[in-house]
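Example for tutorial group B:
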């Protein structure tokens, strides 16, 4: 067995530093938490080069007495724990006394501090664990800690750091979370000489949410306040319709400390069950307050993972608080139905005028038309089409305006379907039936196969198209199918068509989303968005994809930015995420009134293409019921 040796001090410190100092964000976390513990109400964080080159944290807290400054940099030196029993009642963010020792052992640290009772301040410099300067200096009350050249004496650790922008994004995310957990403290975050986060410190959580997470996020929230005898829960949760594809907008704080808790996540999502679509996750900013004696925060070096002595009590408190908030605060979304041009004349007509019109202009009773053609009369009219699959509107007299925008690429159409349909002829109808029979003539290009005759049956719940084809009945989700058609069209375009906004729109984003957008300007341009940096976590949107004609630009762009913030995604996946969002917003909505001609055109598009089976989110577009199965259900056949 090898001989056991006691490690030299400088090696031991570098090993210990690994528990606390992993990256610039971990340094900022420890120093800012010390500032809050010191009673600071104003904290400024500044970084350069992602924090690797330079970090500075300034606070207006109580400061450190001159004689205690060198002691603060020793291992396990702390003012927050005096005796062993104090470990069972921790009310501060820091308590181990390892942070400053670990930071100073792998970087160059300068501290400037002054208490209210001291006449002058103290400047202390320590590099690689060795004291360099200890002198008096003039300064204001509070403490400033400057960290330079992180890992200057341990170059092996440098290769495990990410690029400067990525490290800076992590720091920004950390400052956001600390600001959310302490609305009573005014925070300012400066990144490469640019202020990107500012909070007022007025003690109102909603003010911090607006400043840090943006207007779009804040307006989607519901207030939540509740708990039980041992656990108090307060904060905000999102309305179900604003749930997100990931859990990256779930913020939990325990006694003012940012935490990760499987118990809290499970309780939150259980409360949303049956209120949110599969694959979507609720967003929240929840503060949990418990007696320090019933929670163990000394589980992980970063103190983000905690252990509760009574998980069920915490689960129930969160679950019922969220459930009650959803019951009281959620509102059913309003569906804006586009006006039908056919009835525009009646919008301003009085009841008296309408009755007079009915008396003087008796109309012929319309026949029950079930196909893609007008009512049949004795003259057997024909309808001319430029192209059945084109974006041209059918020239049908008195038809409502077609709103569904379907662009079909030639490669998706089978060869026998590419020829123009010149006429749709009708046959004579017996007067007693009132059921026109319309047959679509075979296409010239191929005599062996014709466009399958599709008969419009109806629409259920203003959402599901019902059609007959061959010996089957198809139920088609009009939103999901239209969404997939738009998505496939966008993917095929080399560069999406865009339209310039009459008035540019400014969008306030979180630091993470903002940096994702700034780093993806070219990708956004390819997808049809033109966005520019407007400073202070805000971008200005000048152009959007032409498909988004009547949408709320800020809401759509906020969702696009959230998709871009996934650093693990490759470019093609990010582009697909953008197209998913655009297609979903541009597609016709369930609940909108749609003309029969529009619905039949959309159904034909779905049933004659081989790539329209699922919407971009994975939901089925249509399902089929065969005639034979129906006849079995009704006992017509065995």
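The residue assignment follows.
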């Amino acid at each position: 067995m090898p001989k056991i040796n006691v490690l030299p001090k400088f090696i031991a410190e570098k090993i210990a530093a690994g528990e606390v100092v992993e990256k610039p964000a971990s340094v900022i976390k420890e120093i800012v938490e010390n500032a809050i513990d010191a009673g600071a109400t104003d904290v400024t964080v500044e970084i350069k080069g992602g924090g690797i080159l330079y970090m500075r944290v300034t606070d207006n807290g109580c400061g450190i007495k001159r004689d205690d400054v060198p002691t603060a940099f020793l291992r396990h030196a702390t003012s927050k724990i005096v005796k062993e029993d104090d470990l069972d009642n921790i009310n501060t963010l820091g308590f181990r006394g390892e942070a400053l020792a670990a930071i100073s052992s792998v970087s160059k640290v300068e501290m400037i501090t002054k208490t209210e009772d001291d006449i002058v301040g103290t400047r202390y410099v320590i590099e690689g664990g060795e004291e360099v300067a200890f002198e008096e200096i003039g300064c204001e009350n509070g403490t400033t800690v400057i960290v330079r050249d992180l890992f200057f004496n341990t170059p092996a650790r440098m290769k495990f750091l990410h690029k400067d922008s990525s490290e800076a994004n992590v720091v920004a995310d950390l400052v956001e979370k600390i600001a959310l957990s302490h609305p009573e403290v005014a925070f300012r975050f400066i990144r490469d000489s640019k202020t990107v986060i500012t909070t007022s410190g007025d003690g109102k959580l909603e003010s911090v949410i607006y400043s840090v997470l943006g207007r779009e996020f804040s307006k989607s929230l519901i207030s939540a306040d509740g708990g039980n005898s041992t656990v108090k829960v307060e904060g905000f949760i999102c309305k179900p319709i604003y749930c997100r594809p990931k859990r990256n907008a779930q913020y939990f704080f325990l006694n003012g400390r940012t935490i990760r808790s499987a118990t809290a996540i499970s309780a939150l999502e259980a409360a949303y069950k049956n209120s949110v679509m599969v694959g979507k996750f609720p967003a929240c900013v929840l503060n949990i307050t418990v007696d320090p004696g019933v929670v163990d925060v000394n589980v992980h070096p970063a103190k983000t993972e905690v252990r509760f002595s009574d998980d069920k009590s915490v689960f129930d408190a969160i679950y019922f608080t969220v459930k009650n908030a959803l019951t009281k605060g959620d509102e059913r979304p309003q569906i804006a139905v586009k006006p039908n041009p056919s009835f525009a004349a009646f919008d301003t007509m009085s009841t008296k005028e309408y009755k007079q019109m009915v008396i003087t202009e008796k109309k012929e009773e319309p026949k029950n038309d079930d196909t893609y053609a007008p009512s049949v009369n004795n003259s057997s009219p024909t309808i001319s089409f430029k192209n059945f699959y084109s974006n041209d509107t059918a020239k049908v007299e008195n038809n409502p305006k077609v709103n569904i925008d379907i662009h079909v690429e030639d490669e998706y159409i089978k060869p026998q379907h590419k020829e123009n349909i010149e006429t749709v002829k009708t046959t004579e109808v017996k007067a007693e039936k009132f059921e026109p029979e319309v047959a679509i003539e075979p296409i010239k290009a191929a005599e062996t196969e014709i466009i399958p005759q599709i008969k419009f049956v109806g629409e259920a719940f203003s959402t599901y198209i019902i059609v007959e084809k061959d010996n089957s009945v198809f139920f088609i989700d009009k939103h999901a199918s239209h969404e997939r058609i738009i998505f496939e069209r966008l993917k095929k375009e080399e560069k999406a068509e865009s339209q310039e906004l009459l008035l540019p729109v400014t969008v306030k984003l979180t630091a993470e989303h903002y940096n994702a957008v700034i780093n993806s300007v070219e990708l956004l341009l390819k997808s049809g968005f033109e966005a520019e940096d407007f400073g202070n976590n805000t971008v200005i949107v000048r152009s959007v994809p032409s498909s988004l004609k009547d949408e709320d630009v800020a809401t759509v762009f906020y969702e696009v930015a959230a998709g871009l913030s996934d650093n693990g995604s490759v470019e093609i996946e990010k582009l697909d995420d953008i197209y998913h969002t655009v297609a979903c917003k541009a597609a016709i909505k369930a609940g909108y009134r749609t003309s029969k001609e529009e619905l039949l055109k959309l159904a034909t598009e779905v049933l004659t293409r081989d790539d329209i089976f699922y919407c971009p989110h994975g939901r089925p577009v249509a399902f089929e019921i065969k005639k034979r199965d129906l006849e079995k259900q009704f006992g017509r056949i065995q």
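The longest helix spans residues 311-329. Compare this with the pattern of hydrophobic and polar residues in the output above.
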